[in-house]
């Protein structure tokens, strides 16, 4: 059971995968495209990674506003989710990604990554944070079930 995490942006998609046990997320790569609406190559790369890592589901970062409303970026993410489900046949779960880019930038800064280099890796680090957040939450739910089941 391997899960893929995605941080979908206007020009990039950060990609992460979890270990085979579903415990830890690892940042994998950042897919870059020239135009926001040119998704064919992006989807092909995601499909190749799904095959390579034997992915069974996808966690897609969902950019909600701080007041819980959904803006333009959130609607584009919902459209990307539908397209991914059709193309891959895998379940795609939207996962609240608020402040993950801020957290990723903080991690990179604390790790000593120069500002000019952060932009190259921030999206895949954010994808790792999104996926790890999901893994932690689902493990917490499984633990509750074990304790009360």
Q: Sketch the major β-sheet.
A: 5 strands, mixed
Q: List unreliable stretches of 5+ residues.
A: none
Can you say what the CATH homologous superfamily is? YqgF/RNase H-like domain
The CATH class designation is Alpha Beta
User: What name does the CATH topology carry?
Assistant: Nucleotidyltransferase, domain 5
Radius of gyration: 15 Å
Tell me the series of helices and strands, N- to C-terminal: EEEHEHEHH
Give the terminus-to-terminus CA distance: 23 Å
CATH-derived architecture: 2-Layer Sandwich
- Summed over residues and divided by their number, the pLDDT gives a mean of 90
Helices, by number, come to 4
Oligomer: single chain
Count up the domains: 1
- Number of separate strands: 5
What does the overall shape look like?
globular
What does this structure look like?
The protein has 149 residues and is α/β, with parallel strands linked by helices. It has a single domain (2-148), classed as YqgF/RNase H-like domain (Nucleotidyltransferase, domain 5), CATH 3.30.420.140. Helix content is 51%, strand content 23%. It contains four helices and five strands. The protein has helices spanning 40-53, 72-88, 100-110, 115-148, and strands at residues 2-8, 12-18, 25-32, 55-62, 92-96. It has a five-stranded mixed beta sheet. Helix 3 crosses helix 4. The mean pLDDT is 90.
How would the blueprint of this fold be written?
Elements lengths: L1 E7 L3 E7 L6 E8 L7 H14 L1 E8 L9 H17 L3 E5 L3 H11 L4 H34 L1
Parallel strand pairs: 1-4, 4-5
Antiparallel strand pairs: 1-2, 2-3
Helix pairs in contact: 3-4
């Amino acid at each position: 059971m391997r899960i893929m995490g995605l941080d979908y942006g206007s020009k990039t998609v950060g990609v992460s995968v979890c270990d085979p046990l579903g415990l830890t997320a690892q940042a994998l790569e950042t897919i870059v495209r020239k135009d926001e609406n040119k998704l064919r190559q992006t989807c092909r790369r995601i499909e190749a990674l799904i095959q390579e890592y034997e992915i069974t589901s996808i966690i897609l970062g969902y950019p909600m506003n701080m007041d819980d409303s959904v803006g333009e970026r959130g609607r584009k993410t919902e459209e990307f989710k539908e397209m991914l489900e059709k193309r891959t046949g895998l379940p795609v779960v939207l996962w609240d990604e608020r402040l993950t880019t801020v957290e990723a930038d903080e991690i990179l800064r604390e790790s000593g990554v120069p500002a000019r280099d952060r932009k190259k890796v921030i999206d895949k680090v954010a994808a790792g944070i999104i996926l790890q957040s999901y893994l932690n939450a689902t493990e917490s739910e499984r633990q509750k079930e074990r304790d009360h089941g």
